[in-house]
Q: What sequence folds into this?
């Protein structure tokens, strides 16, 4: 068997979830990547597959999903989905990479043969609903073991830039941060009234198991106003950090964004 790039279906029988429809897979992909496996193997899931490098034809197709900017790795697609579908989210949303299986690309998938199909069929939806946010990788290495918890990607400056002006501003922010967002039209007053404002202190340690594949509940997403996700995406676009570096920052902050402790 080719462990590096497996094409055969995993032989173990894994039941499909039901009922269909009230759950979605969100994915960033290159236009040339084959992601037919999602529809073929996980037909009971809604699909939102965003092309990050659209051709002229795809760009002109108003029905094709594409990101507004190719930066931040998968985060641009993830945030675009939340922004565009905020008022019509399914109960469970799984954010996945475009590669299905094989050690070479999907080494970070814990399921047998590193197969995302097996991982999704094994996902306990009730566990996602109870916890709000679930990292799809259980192995702490890399990203969460002790030596990784002093995070060189999430610096104090980055923490402030990402969360300033959101419903969870940095602890040392002035009260005017949210007001400035409202005054500029970036956020409505009701967005902050309807959501409990929580000031976030920059933690000494920030860590998360690799590699930005996770599931969240609709209720957890809605604990933040839509404007927060707009702000996060704008940070990815505006930051001087590279595609890879800005994506890595978001990889280490998804769990914080969705209400979990920093480690």
A:
């Amino acid at each position: 068997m080719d462990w590096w790039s497996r094409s055969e279906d995993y032989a173990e029988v894994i039941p499909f979830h039901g009922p269909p429809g009230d759950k979605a897979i969100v994915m960033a992909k290159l236009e040339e990547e084959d992601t037919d496996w999602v529809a073929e193997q996980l037909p009971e899931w809604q699909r939102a597959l965003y092309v990050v490098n659209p051709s002229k034809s795809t760009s002109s197709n108003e029905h094709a999903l594409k990101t507004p900017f190719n930066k931040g790795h998968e985060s641009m697609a993830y945030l675009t989905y939340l922004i565009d579908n905020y008022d019509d989210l399914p109960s469970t949303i799984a954010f996945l990479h475009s590669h299905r299986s094989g050690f070479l690309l999907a080494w970070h998938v814990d399921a047998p043969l590193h197969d995302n199909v097996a991982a999704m069929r094994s996902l306990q939806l009730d566990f996602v609903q109870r916890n709000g946010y679930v990292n799809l990788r259980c192995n702490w290495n890399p990203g969460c073991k002790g030596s990784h918890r002093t995070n060189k990607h999430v610096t104090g400056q980055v923490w402030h830039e990402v969360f300033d002006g959101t419903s969870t501003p940095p602890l040392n922010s002035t009260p005017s941060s949210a007001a400035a967002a409202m005054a500029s039209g970036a956020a409505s007053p009701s967005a902050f009234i309807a959501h409990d404002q929580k000031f976030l202190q920059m933690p000494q340690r920030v860590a998360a198991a690799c590699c930005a594949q996770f599931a969240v509940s609709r209720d957890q997403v809605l604990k933040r106003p839509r404007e927060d996700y707009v702000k996060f995406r704008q940070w990815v676009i505006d930051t001087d950090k590279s595609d890879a570096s800005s994506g890595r920052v978001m990889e280490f902050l998804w769990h914080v964004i969705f209400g979990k402790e920093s480690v």
Remarks:
- Strands lie at 23-29, 46-51, 92-96, 133-135, 214-217.
- The radius of gyration is 18 Å.
